[in-house]
Specification:
By secondary structure, this protein is an alpha/beta fold. The protein is built from six helices and seven strands. It is about 40% helix and about 15% strand. Helix 1 runs parallel beside helix 2 and helix 4 (about 110-140) runs parallel beside helix 5 (about 160-180).
Length: about 240
């Protein structure tokens, strides 16, 4: 396996990262850029994307912000077309955009909250793969990484919609991996436990023991620097101590 500490490991590669304005997405973008890739930062709001791009450029990385709403197929297709037109390809797609949604029993969940969670966490990944995978198929190379959760492996009382979206994402990932293997495209899923981000508060947990966004970014870096004859299909990421 390539050493993730080598700055030139991903030189010449193009990485598209959704939800890249803050938290886990921003950390993944910084890590991939540090390995030499040009990162395309996708998100609904331009301001956070610009901030992430500025932080990356200050340390010598290459980053381009690109507004995109993963719940809108036309928006995702337009983003893919722009990437292909301006950069010529997509080597890495990290589907990170996600929302937590309503906290409470499923029978009290407003239908609009269900739609928001499923449309972002699951439908959005489908849209992104639909838009970007054809570039990889034509090039006969690529890596798709879907950021899921341990909630996609375990019961999550008072978070059933979120859990359903992540269980669905895992099933999607395993299935698409088999579809795309023949095209030399690797599809992997990363399932972290509790991560300390501003968008995912965890009441009653010790933040000092929680996973950090950089821990997820490290896992993604390991995936995209694997030797070409193998791939890790799934990573379950837990904190050393229970928070």
């Amino acid at each position: 396996m390539a050493q993730t500490g080598q700055k030139s490991t991903l030189t010449g590669q193009i990485a598209v990262i959704t939800g890249a304005g803050r938290g886990i997405g921003a950390a993944i973008a910084a890590k991939i850029a540090a390995l030499g890739a040009t990162v395309v930062l996708c998100g609904r709001t331009r301001g956070p994307l610009d901030a992430t791009a500025d932080a990356i450029s200050k340390v010598g990385g290459q980053a381009q912000p690109l507004q995109c709403d993963v719940t809108d197929l036309r928006s995702v297709e337009a983003a893919a077309a722009q990437v292909e037109q301006t950069l010529g390809k997509t080597d890495i797609l990290v589907n990170n955009a996600g929302v937590g949604g309503f906290a409470g029993p499923l029978h009290q969940l407003p239908p609009e909250s269900w739609d928001q969670v499923l449309n972002t966490n699951l439908r959005g990944v489908y849209y992104s793969i639909r838009a970007f995978a054809p570039m990889m198929i034509r090039a006969r190379t690529g890596h798709i990484i879907n950021i899921s959760s341990l909630a996609g492996k375990n019961a999550l009382p008072n978070g059933a919609a979120y859990a359903a979206s992540k269980w669905g994402l895992n099933g999607l990932s395993y299935s698409v991996a088999e579809e795309l293997r023949a095209h030399k495209i690797r599809v992997s899923v990363v399932c972290p436990g509790s991560v300390d981000t501003e968008l995912s508060p965890h009441a009653g947990k010790d933040k000092s023991k929680m996973l950090q966004p950089e821990d997820v970014a490290h896992a993604v870096a390991m995936l995209v620097t694997q030797a070409p004859q193998s791939f890790v299909s799934e990573i379950l990421l837990r904190p050393t101590q229970k928070p």
